[in-house]
Amino acid sequence: MIDTDVLDTGLGDADDDDFDETVEYDDSQLPDHRYMDRELSWLAFNQRVLELAEDPTLPVLERANFLAIFASNLDEFFMVRVAGLKRRIVTGLAVPTNVGRAPQDVLSDISESAHALQVRHTRAWLDLVKPALADAGIEVVSWEDLSADDRDDLYDYFQSQVFPVLMPLAVDPAHPFPYISGLSLNLAIRIRNAKTGRQEFARLKVPPMLPRFVQLPPSGGRARYLPLEQLIAHHLSDLFPGMEILEHHAFRLTRNEDMVIEEDETENLIQALEAELLRRRFGPPIRLEVTEQMDEVTLDLLIAELDITEQEVYRLPGPLDLRGLFDLAKIDRPELHYPAHVPVTASAFQPAEQNGRADFFTAIRKGDVLVHHPYESFTTSVVSFLEQAARDPHVLAIKQTLYRTSGDSPIVQALIDAAERGKQVLALVEVKARFDEAANIVWARKLEKAGVHVVYGLVGLKTHCKLLHVIREEDGMLRSYSHIGTGNYNPKTSRLYEDFGLFTADEQVGRDLTRLFNELSGYAIEKKFKRLLVAPLHLRKGLLRLIDKERRNALEGKPAHIRIKVNSMVDEQIIDALYRASQAGVRVDVWVRGICSLKLGLDGVSDNITVRSILGRYLEHSRIFAFAGDGDPQVYIGSADMMHRNLDRRVEALVRVVAPGHIKELVDLFDLAMSDETSSWHLEPSGDWSRHSVGENGKPLVDLQERTMTQVQRRRRARAVR
Q1: Cβ atoms 257, 182 nearer than 8 A
Q2: Among 33, 84, 521, 683, which residue has the fewest nearby CB atoms (within 10 Å)?
């Protein structure tokens, strides 16, 4: 067992006066234009998602799922990032840009790139995935493909299941142009009154509660589906009797859903948030998607009524709102999906033979336990640990941060059970978690009703760290059991997101979490910690110091290596520190899933930096920071990405991993990801990302996620034999 009271973290403790010293660097040796634009880099990330959908070697229903993920990602990008840029331009606020270009030029580039990607996305569906589905016996048909019997069957379905919920809205002097909800799929309809000859306009919303694809009876053993908007469009005469249907076209609107709450000016955060959620529904339009066939009269009317610019109109050569492919991707055809994978129970948490239950407290007392999801089960580790803590009569208190979870989550239920058993329970709920605000408010109130102490974090900061702290009485003494994770306490997403979690009974970590929770439920975070790096005050400083230590080691001829795995790499101070380390000869490996503002190809600056990205069946979500440390490796995991919001406007926590076996596991995973033998995307000096999935011999490169599944299974079997 390592004595962390004397453990040298390389970061100093609460009495280390030089921790806050600011080191001045001469950045004149770094070129001015040394950052990639973050928004264009995000679009490049979504292009990598699209490339998975275009990959014929992947199971076809997974390709359909990637098309839906691309569409959903792009919606959020417009609702938040593009909307935020526009709001700042319109209101005259400073627009943060690290590329030295005018915000309007950045918006223009975003529009150009997004247009090209959306057309490519539609063509991927029409030309690649849809035909591949048909080859596999799953057809998405058009109305013109249907027989008379099919159309009769569909008419019956339309009359009984669709017609009653449709609400056509006319536009005339007595009926102003209706409100168009964000992300809704609509039909713009122009009609002529047969009696008066007058042309009218109507809007019809495609009901979102109905299946996006209507299933037809199988034909020749083939499953068949018709887009719902086509079914509605071909029965408009039932909705407008006596009218001549002149034109009908699908359209879809995206609204600004970027939320702004002045927390220091409100007395009740929940009430302010609920008011902002209502306002968000009516945010200004930010994007109008239409089909290529839409006539100019209809389009001009929409542009005028929605007060939208030509640049914000996206003409697409196929169906709109391919998020509907999420439903098709759930078709029960195992051979068209990734092979089934059942997470294993971490070896340390295997049930005891005598009662079939794991004793988490005994297991964690033996030593730190590192769990890798979804390869190792979240349910049989985090959830079961919390449920045991809720039942255990020796547990006195449970404290937990909750950023995103599900309303029916066993996590929430365990906290309620613990409170009802008389334990002290604190839940720090982040009600400002984007797009989960309304759900978080609902179950936060449910927790409060059960007697849980619910707090909503600090003014001006989101609480994003993933912390669980259990206090247990043992032999008259109090002992801490802690869990620090890289991902949310959400059993549903834990099956799709790759994350790490560290369980520990280390007393120093317990003291760190005790202080941190006290500050989170009280006032500002000011203290320093022993085994944690905590934002917003100390995390960036700590990482800069670790990076600089590697730089100095390299200058002194010592081994030096920096490995960083994050979702996003944007922060200029961190990037500049990596540039300086590279200049000193430090090997810098960056494994990033999404945005990367770091530039390669800068002679004498980024020569020693390698950047890779991996996407696959699981969303790479963990954050790892590993420093060679001249033989004393410093390795951290946690919740923080290298973005301004994470380092300056969120409470984040990284925990140092100290067990040699855990350090080796993390470093080995990293080295596998960075290997030229592993399938990945490489960031090129041009700023483009090139996919490397096939070796020179024509054989597929190693799939990191499949290899990790195999290794985890093998490791478990080896430990079982021992």
Answers
A1: yes
A2: 33
Neighbouring-strand partners of residue 401: 428
**What mean pLDDT do residues 228-254 have?**
94
Mean pLDDT of 114-132: 98
Tell me: do 352 and 406 sit in the same domain. yes
Residue listed under structure tokens 């925990």: 655
> pTM to 2 decimals?
0.90
Angstrom distance (rounded) from CA 655 to CA 465: 11
Instruction: Please tell me what DSSP assigns to residue 249.
Output: E
Distance, CA of 253 to CA of 204 (rounded, Å): 13
* CATH at 503: 3.30.870.10
Given pLDDT bands bounded at 50, 70 and 90, which one contains residue 435?
low
* Rg of the chain (C-alpha set): 28
* 3 state DSSP class of 193: strand
**Is pLDDT above 60 for 678?**
yes
Give me the domain span that covers residue 454. Answer: 347-520
- Cβ-based neighbours of 177, under 8 Å, separated by 6 or more: 171, 203, 305
For 712, the enclosing helix (H) or strand (E) is: helix 704-721
**Residues 209 and 271 reside in one and the same domain:** yes
Cα 501–chain centre separation: 17
Encoded tokens for 497 = 């997101």
Question: How many residues belong to the chain?
Answer: 722
Quick check: 381 and 408 in contact, CB under 8 A?
Answer: no
pLDDT level of residue 611 (50, 70, 90 thresholds): very high
Interval 473-519: pLDDT, tens: 999 999 999 999 999 999 999 999 999 999 999 999 999 999 999 98
Q: In the chain, what is the straight-line distance between the N-terminal and C-terminal CA atoms, in Å?
A: 21
DSSP assigned state of 30? S
Q: Amino acid identity, residue 252? A: R
Q: Are 145 and 227 in contact (CB under 8 A)?
A: no
Residue 717, class by beta-carbon neighbours within 10 Å (0-12 exposed, 13-18 middle, 19+ buried)? exposed
Whether 86 shows a pLDDT value over 50: the answer reads yes
Q: Report the phi/psi class of residue 367: left, alpha or beta, with left for phi > 0 and alpha for psi in -120 to 50.
A: left
Rounded to whole angstroms, the Cα distance separating 641 from 621 reads: 10
Structural domain includes residue 526: no
Q: Answer whether residue 525 is part of any domain.
A: no
* Cβ proximity of 314 and 118 under 8 Å: yes
Beta strands in 505-627 (DSSP E): 532-535, 561-566, 587-592, 609-613, 619-620, 623-627
pLDDT score recorded for residue 11 = 33
Residues 6+ apart with CB under 8 A from 230: 142, 143
Angle at 659 between CA 653 and CA 664, to 5 degrees: 95
* Closest listed residue to residue 70, CA positions, set 118, 29, 113: 118
| 476: Cβ contacts below 8 Å, ≥ 6 apart | none
Please indicate, yes or no, whether residues 294 and 397 belong to a single structural domain of this protein.
no
Round the average pLDDT of the chain to a whole number and report it: 88
The catalytic residues are 464
Q: Is residue 342 part of a domain?
A: no
CA angle 414/418/422 to nearest 5° reads 165
Biggest CA–CA distance in the chain, Å, is 91
Question: Which tokens is 417 given?
Answer: 């059970």
Tokens coding 310: 């030509």
Mean pLDDT within 272-294: 75
| Segment (H or E) for 579 | helix 572-583
Spatial separation of the C-alpha atoms in residues 535 and 638, rounded to whole Å: 11
